[in-house]
Automatic annotation (TrEMBL):
Domain RNA polymerase sigma-70 region: 35-101
Official protein name in the record: DNA-directed RNA polymerase sigma-70 factor
Family classification: Belongs to the sigma-70 factor family. ECF subfamily.
Sequence intervals crossing the membrane: none
Residues covered by the RNA polymerase sigma factor 70 region 4 type domain: 134-183
Alphabetized Pfam families for the sequence: Sigma70_r2 (PF04542), Sigma70_r4_2 (PF08281)
Tagged with keyword Transcription regulation: yes
BP-aspect Gene Ontology terms: DNA-templated transcription initiation
Region (Disordered): 194-222
Superkingdom of the source species: Bacteria
Coiled coil ranges: none
GO MF: DNA binding; sigma factor activity
GO cellular component: DNA-directed RNA polymerase complex
């Protein structure tokens, strides 16, 4: 089953908790709605991990999601984290069986002419288009790429992303912060990419601020 790829939408995703419950009860149209909502972001995530094999890995992930759906408990945010975890496990299995490294994306210079003009991370990512944006994120070290994808593209909070990756929330915030700063620096190498780079730096600053606040709260609790 193929879903047409839409531009990246970095705004709040719809809450489909009721739709998930309907799908668990056997409503095929509800399951299709869940699939159409999640499949694009799963594909973007998997392309960074397994490259051209993303379709096959996504199919395996959805087979498991459909098989295990009845046992899921939680809200929509937890469901997204659960689904991404399954997709990541299938991707890691695929990489181990293929005995190869994750795909290497095109050089960042390829995207220098594609950047936007608005001073926001949403404009920066949406303006380069889906394939270019994901390939650009794929130039990062994998821990940073996954953190940026889960936090910015999939839209998971740091705690949920940490559960997907098997890391503490603070480590995810740090990786996302470093990844976003690195993307901003890469884009900033082009004079025409200044606005996009500024937007990415703003997002990195927000991510870094969240990390600092979380660390301060942890220290107060000690």
């Amino acid at each position: 089953m193929e879903v047409a790829e839409a531009p990246i939408d970095l705004h709040a995703p719809p809450d489909l908790a009721g739709t998930v419950l309907a799908a668990q009860a056997g409503d095929e149209s509800a399951f299709l709605t869940v699939y159409r909502t999640l499949q694009p972001v799963l594909m973007r995530y998997l392309r960074v991990l397994v490259g051209d094999d993303a379709d096959d890995v996504a199919s395996e992930a959805w087979l498991q999601i459909a098989r295990d759906l009845g046992g899921f408990r939680g809200d929509w945010d937890k469901f997204r984290g659960w689904a991404v975890t399954i997709a990541r496990h299938r991707a890691m299995d695929h990489l181990r069986s293929a005995r190869r490294r994750p795909s290497v994306a095109a050089p960042v210079e390829h995207f220098a002419d594609l950047t936007g003009t608005e001073d926001t991370v949403e404009a920066a990512m949406e303006s380069v288009g889906t394939s270019a944006a994901i390939a650009l994120i794929g130039t990062l070290p994998r821990d940073q790429a996954e953190a940026v994808l889960l936090r910015v593209v999939v839209g998971l909070d740091a705690e949920t992303a940490g559960r997907v990756l098997g890391k503490r929330a603070g480590a995810v915030r740090t990786a996302a912060y470093r990844g976003l700063r690195r993307l901003a620096e890469q884009l900033g190498a082009s004079e025409r990419a200044g606005a996009a780079a500024s937007g990415l730096r703003s997002e990195a600053t927000r991510e870094g601020g969240a990390f600092d606040a979380a660390r301060a709260n942890e220290q107060k609790a000690l």
